[in-house]
Amino acid sequence: MKEKIKFSLNGRPIELETDTSQTLLWVIRTELGLTGTKHGCSIGFCGTCTILVDGIAERSCSLTVKKIEGKNVTTIEGLAQDGKLHPVQESFIRHDAQQCGFCTPGMIMNAVGLLNTIPNPSHKQIINGMNDNLCRCGSYNSITKAIESAAQEMKGGNKL
Amino acid sequence: MNSKEINKIYFGDVDTLNIFRHNRRDFIKKLGGGLIIIFTIGKYKAFAMEDEAEDNNEELDFNAYIRIREDGKVECYTGKIEMGQGITTSLAQVLAEELEVTLDSVEMIMGDTDLCPYDAGTWGSLTTRFFDPILRAAAVEARMELIKLAAAQMKVPENELKTEAGTVVKILDNSIKISYGALTKGKKIVKTINKPPIFKKINEYKQVGNPINATNAKLKVTGQAKYAGDIQLPDMLYASISRPSAHGSKLLSVDSIKAEAIEGVKIIIIDDLVAALHTNPTVAMKAQQAIKTTWSTPEVLANDETIFKYLVQNAVETSIVEEKGNLTTGFNEADYAAEFEYHDGYKSHAPMETHSATVQFDGDKLIIWASTQTPFGTRQELSRKLDMPLEKVHVKQVLLGGGFGGKIYGNQIVEAALLAKKAGVPVQLAWTRKEEFMYNMFRPAAVMQIKAGVKNDGKISAWKYQIYCAGSRGVNDFYGITNLRSALYDKKNIHPFGVGAWRAPGNNSTTFARESHIDILADKIGMDPLELRLKNISDAKMERTLRLAAKTFGYTSAKTGINKGCGIALGVDAGTYVALISEVEVDPESGVVTPLRMVCAQDMGQVVNPHGATVQTEGGLTMGLGYALYEDIQFNGGEVKTHNFHNYEITRFSVTPAIESVFVEDMESPPQGGGEPAIICVGGAIANAVFHASGARVHQMPITPERILKALKK
What we know:
The complex is a heterodimer of chains A (160) and B (714).
Chain A: E1 2-9, E2 12-19, H1 24-31, E3 50-53, E4 56-59, E5 72-74, H2 87-94, H3 104-117, H4 123-130, H5 140-154
Chain B: H1 3-11, H2 16-21, H3 24-30, E1 34-39, E2 64-68, E3 74-78, H4 87-99, E4 106-110, H5 127-154, E5 161-164, E6 167-170, E7 173-179, H6 180-183, E8 188-192, H7 217-221, E9 237-242, E10 251-255, H8 257-260, E11 266-270, E12 273-278, H9 281-290, E13 292-295, H10 307-314, E14 316-324, H11 327-333, E15 336-344, E16 356-362, E17 365-370, H12 375-385, E18 393-396, H13 411-423, E19 427-430, H14 433-439, E20 446-454, E21 460-468, E22 484-490, H15 507-524, H16 529-536, H17 540-553, E23 559-561, E24 564-573, E25 576-586, E26 593-603, H18 610-629, E27 635-636, E28 639-640, E29 658-663, H19 682-694, E30 700-701, H20 705-713
Parallel strand pairs in B: 1-8, 3-4, 9-19, 15-30, 17-18, 21-22, 26-29
Antiparallel strand pairs in B: 1-2, 2-3, 5-6, 6-7, 9-12, 10-13, 11-12, 14-22, 15-20, 16-17, 16-19, 20-21, 23-24, 24-25, 25-26, 27-28
Helix pairs in contact in B: 4-5, 15-19, 18-19
């Protein structure tokens, strides 16, 4: 059933009239045209569709649009500010933490969400926090290093 | 390897004459001015050693080309594709090296069937082995041609000129120079490689051998990288397909009345292809679920437990890989003999991006963006299936979200094209994860039977090897066994569903079996497994690779602590020698394996991009833990019961150990495969490590806690 919904996407106010029982993933990708958020499994098991809702990492494939009324949604496209990449993005490039790159947006969003919640995570906290994001190319060790390095650089700052 | 063999690997059974004929002049016509060097993989003599028969087919002289544009930019057009293996970076690196330009002036144009010449596909770790040398040769040819042009224009003898950073410079006076781009003066100059190139000396390298991060990383970390499912076109419909529950089912009936009642839904039925389409993918999916279909139930011949027996009973001997000496003599000489059967279940490629395609008919042309490792094979198949001339089918370049061999096959593209033709508007089809698991061309289940004899001094005297459904790759003996017979068994359509190439095809299964068995022999005579291997290895490259691994690991013994042990496995794949030592901890109560450390040494000849090679190695080892410990397709006949990641566990952060990757220094040898080799040893190294940690010898992959506990009870 179509209904009006308001939320913020990457700092922009959005007003949509749409079937709010749809998942946020497909609305972001199709109606809003932002394809950086990827479809991987549709059941919240792989993490490629991870986005931030009020700064917390969420699986957009398992979230209906209804649930984001009035909230701030950030996707990979909204992470860079004024053309400057987020420290986690910079760190991923520096550590070559992506191969095919398909899981990368979800990995980065999950990492940013993790650092928002735990600004100075231990190695173990990073592993636990990232464990439900899958990467078939096998870049886990590089991703972990990239997150550790970004966390150090941010020193608890740069919250989104 | 002669040119015919290279061509066979590269082009398979493809009718190359037909493919090359139609496009050579077209490509060149489309290009603007500049210097263009065209070249091919197979023909070039300097790389096709022992090659006597000159191939007179001129059209084959055209497998890729480079162009030095008038603005100084360098373009390399190749039918290869990028799926995360990093060739966009490493190919640009060798081109920049031999051409003497900066890396950022090189642009790789890949996998576009209208812009790039034919290429059979990106697989088998072939790119660096076969494409790389010829690309370098083309770059040398270009550089020589540019010097010739400069000599004429500057009125300076060629031998008084040198090249650096995209310019030709007078050796004795740096101020006299001219840029590459300015040399062609608006003309289009087309050249081929005519003589053996004089490559740079290794000590002159400025780029090759440097660790360089992937050049396309920024697109990937900002969400700007485009994959097939990211293409959005006006009026495009998303397709959702009704599927049977099993392979081999035929459509019996369709009732789409309810689905058709949904606003904006289009139902298309073409033979057994039943689809709902809508501008909104969620609605398309709901409509598809509202379609009622019934399907025939195919006969069940085997399930995931009975398959191994089934394969052994039904496969027939197809060929002998290797036969030496006399097995009876070998077993008579042996002090101990061991005979075991090894099993490996079906595995999925499980790339994070499911098979996807976006298809558009534009006038009489068909345009495709697809996740495929074979853009040209895709073009051919579509031309045939849709009865269109080859040149009217255009596969465009997109990135792939992982391939691993699984995207050599592109049935989703055919489905999308058939639907788009009927729908009259662009169509996008991205398989669901369930479809991805169902229609994957699986790594085949395999059985390896080995009977081997060993003498008390550690020499292996006999090896009887029967390989079911895993093929010959990597099977050749490097242990110098004098009495040996390795035979292959297989049969067409023996598997309950489609199978295909999975990162280092067959070599994961056979390396697991061979290396497990080597350790069993060592255990039989109470010899350290490293010592037994060193005693037998007959290949100097393998020996130095193993020694490097052992030294880097700091190997002292296979038992490394309470419930801890390390395992060795060796293998050869795509020309690269691999030695892996893995350490694990096994919980004796639960049987759970915790990988602690992996040290991998490889001899891959010249390492073009050490950083890229390390990334590929770590990736392969990480992925490999999945098939060794977790991955197993559950099925009953053609019904695949594995549907998603909740019942197909792959390696995750929490089980990825510290990984160290080292390379034998061998800059003088030609570069070998890098994308696949490292993964082949994971199964064997883990199986051996589990044994040394816990005493459990598991003869079947994945090596699950249940199988470990069962082995411990024996």
